[in-house]
Amino acid sequence: MIASGLYDFGEDEGLRESQLGVGYDDDCFGITLVADRDLQTGSSGANSTTIFARFRLKNLGEFETTAYSGSSGGSGTEQ
Question: What is the CATH number of the domain that holds 34?
């Protein structure tokens, strides 16, 4: 189980990033699935969500892919 968070205690305090995932490691391989959410302030623009998977083979390397990457928000005045 993977879980983390980043909280800003500054002037515009609040949660800035959160991450949640699950993983499995065996003698020969490992697999991990993680969801990451970046939360920006209202003045800075967009929020984003990314979901990715990682597959590892012992002594051979690993393969990682982004299954989903999306963003929302913004000022509505994109150029």
Answer: 2.20.130
List the domain range (segments joined by +) for residue 11. 2-72
Query: How many domains in the chain?
Result: 1
Q: Determine if residue 14 is left, alpha or beta; phi over 0 gives left, psi from -120 to 50 gives alpha, anything else beta.
A: left
Contact 54, 64 (CB under 8 A): yes
Report how far Cα 19 is from the mean position of its chain's Cα atoms.
Answer: 5
At 49-68, the pLDDT tens digits run: 889 898 888 888 766 677 66
pTM comes to 0.60
| Separation between Cα atoms, residue 15 and residue 7, nearest integer Å | 4
